[in-house]
What does this fold into?
Amino acid sequence: MKISSWNVNSVRARIKNIIEYLKDTSPDILMIQEIKTEDKTFPYEDLKNSGYESYVYGQKSYNGVAFLSKKKIDKINKSFIKDKFNQSRIIEANIKNKSEEIKLINIYVPNGNPIETEKYEYKKIWLKSFIKEVKNKLLINKNIIIGGDFNVIPEEIDVYNFKKFENDALFKLEIRKKFRELLNLGFQDIYRFLNKEKTEYTFWDYMAGSWQKNYGMRIDHFLVSNSLLNKVKTVNINKKPRGKVKPSDHTPIEIEIN
DNA sequence: ATGGCTGAGCTACTCAGA
It folds into this structure.
C-alpha cells in the first residue's frame, strides 16, 4: 500500500499538477495540506475522474486538509483539536492494511512565524494539544501513522543553513523539543529512521532561486508508530513535482507499507 | 540586511506562507 503526503499550496491552483502526480505515482492514498478552499469549492469531480474519492476538511483562503483515496476509508474525523480559532488543520481516518486497522492522521501544523507574536504562541499550544490527543489515541489503537506538513525542521542536517534558522519558528529548540516529545510517545520519523545521514528536503521557497540553489528544508514528515515499523518497505521524497511549471513550494513524501 | 515569489479574495491591496 502506497501513502503519500503533499502540501499542495492551493488545490485549485494545483489541480493539473496533482492529477499528473496521481497518474505518475498511483498512491492508494494521497494526503494533501493547504488546500486553501472550502468544501463546496473543492474539485471533487476532477479527482473522481482520476479514480480518487475526496474527504475534505476545507477552509476559505487558508489551511485546509484532505484525503484522496482509491478505496473508501472509514471514520473520518475533522474535530481532532477544538479551539476558538477553528482552523482546518487535521483530518483523520481509519484504513485497513490487510486485516490490520491503522489510524491515519493528516496534519498541517501552524507555521508560527514571526516569533514573539501570538502566531508563535498558537503553534506551541497547538502542538501541546496535538501531543495530548495522540497520546489518547494510542491507548485505543497503537497503529498510527501521522503524515503532513509539520512545519518543524527536526535537526541541523534538515536545512540548508541551520544558523539562519535558530530563531525561526520552524527550528527553534523548544519547537524541536515538541517534535521529539511526539516521537517519544512511540513513533519514528520514518525518513530519518531509514536514511541516517542523507540530506534531502521537502520544501524550497519560491523566492530568490531557492530551488535552483537547493536552499531547502525537510519539514514534511511521516511519523510511524513503533508497532508498524517493520511493515514499512520504502520511504521516498519525490522531487519531480517541485520542478514542474507552476509548482507547489513543497514536494511529496511517499511511503510504502506491507 | 533586505527582498525576492505565490495564492486567495477581490479588482487594490492585504494577509499568509516558511
